[in-house]
Design a protein that fits this description.
single chain; about 160 residues; mainly beta; eight-stranded antiparallel sheet; 1 helix; 8 strands; globular
Length: about 160
């Protein structure tokens, strides 16, 4: 078995962020593009870190990062972070994702999701957990379960 880090399919070293990987910019107009560039990297056996850069477009009416933006970032981090943490290659869907809001997220500071691979089953279930922090302080924590599925056919079935 290789000690080389596992990376999500299509990941490349990010040209603007040394030591990080990304998929580049998401297609314009896609839902994923609303998060902005997603960065990720392995962080030791069974662990990974994912990063987004919250901006004004991610704010709620109260001046904090919108909960929907946070949860979208966490969901994307389950996939990218899970793969960097050792999750088997394949096509997955989210079965559940639970988020606790510990402190307000702020614009202008990177938001890092620290992802841990808890367990993978032979049946294709992947259990993950982690927390998000800004400037070293936790602001959200999360758990999630992914399920490996066959790649969707062209007709959507």
């Amino acid at each position: 078995m290789s000690d080389a880090p596992r990376l999500p399919t299509g990941a490349q070293p990010d040209p603007d962020n040394p030591d990080w990987f990304s998929w580049g910019d998401f297609p314009r107009g896609s839902f994923a593009s609303r998060t902005g560039r997603l960065l990720f990297r392995p962080d030791g056996p069974g662990r990974a870190v994912c990063r987004m850069f919250p901006d004004q477009s991610h704010l709620n009416m109260g001046g904090s990062i919108h909960g929907g933006a946070v949860m979208s970032f966490i969901d994307m981090s389950l996939f990218a972070g899970g793969r960097c943490a050792g999750m088997a290659e394949g096509h997955y869907v989210t079965l559940d994702c639970s988020t606790r809001f510990i402190a307000r997220g702020r614009v202008g500071l990177p938001l890092d999701a620290h992802v841990r691979l808890i367990r993978q089953t032979r049946g294709g279930l992947v259990f993950l957990a982690g927390h998000c922090e800004q400037d070293g302080s936790p602001c959200y924590d999360f758990t999630g379960t992914l399920k490996k599925v066959a790649i969707r056919e062209e007709n959507g079935r």
